[in-house]
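Schema walk-through. Below, the input block comes first and the output block second. Nothing else is stored per chain. Lengths vary across the set, and this one has 430 residues.
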Amino acid sequence: MPSPTGAGPAPRPLSADPAADLTADRTVSAPERADTAARSVRELFAGRALGVPGTLLGAPAHPRPRSRTAPWHYWWQAHLLDALVDAALRHRDEPARAEEIRRDAHRLLRGITLRSGGRVTQNSYYDDMAWLLLAVGRLAALDRELTGRADVACLDAGRALLARIERGHTADLGGGVFWNTRHDVKNTASSAPAALAFVRTHRTEQARAVLGWLQENLWDPGRRVFHDGLILVAAGSGSEVTRRDERLFSYNSGPVLGALLELADAPGTGTDDRARLLGTAADVVAGAAEAYGRPVPGRRVLTTHGGGDGGLFSGILARYLAQAARHPDLAETARRTAAELVTGTADALWAGRREAESATAPGGGGAPSARTGGAVAVFSPDPAQPAGQAQRPGAPVELSTQVQAWTVLEAAARLERPWTGAGAGGSAER
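--- output ---
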């Protein structure tokens, strides 16, 4: 993956005092921090998909697994694609660099397609496909902004993904979107990003229906968070028996928050309905802060969920908290809370980073060159702990946790840009 950045400042060494390591170095700007994260993911994880030129894919871990049967994490790649779009937008005032990153994003989409067997819809999970649809939609909007038109392959992927997700949106279990093609669970993980995708593709009635189902079935009004899902236990004789999965995960609040904000700004939304949607969005921010916020010296940070798939969860929430923080019509308290969680988490991740050796495996990202330059960093999976404590020395570092950190740092950088007023659909700046 060609680097989206030039040389940056070297990370300061970790001290022996964990509290000191969580004191942010404010001499490095938020965009410079995001550049370091972008460069680090490139160096440590990026390579060709199945060795095919013109493609990119993120290895699941660094060092890279030697086995040819290494796990395939489709949805991690979707969030890697989102992060590339973030980086391209951040460099939009440097056309050559923004274009280079945009081309990388298309290489990654080709890599995802190839690794999926030639079709982006070759997947059993509707939530995975919804995440990729959101990223592909932002990439198409980026294409239009930088080149004047969207890439045909990108548009084709978006149409195919949308059609599959619509098949998961049924009246079974009262509505919502199924989690996978077994059609035995409907959950927030699939319904929330699908609702946001419906807003962005101008299917506002579908979005309203999904959000209404989530509110009725999985919303906890006391804690103002969403439970994980609704499981089909038994069916027959015209009745369904379900059980609610009470688990709470930070990422479930994120795309609901995005869908509420963008539906509020969608054409045709009335004044009263807009006020209601923004009020609910403020509740989601408050609930997320209470359920997923955690104090560390000098700030509050987002609680994270370890490694594996959970290594992405709070990065996703941070993406949409940044969107909330930048919305001028959201309640001031909610905007301030959202911004503090994003910047606090970003500061802690930055302060707790450690230096890493570059990827050098054949077919990998390659060693740092004069073109990529700068230090390579590993970020902690837990912003409340420095990377040196949270990750055992020599243990593999997972792509999910590093994309999460990159996403948080991009979210913090985005807070320095003015709100564009972009409503539903048509803009990559979300």
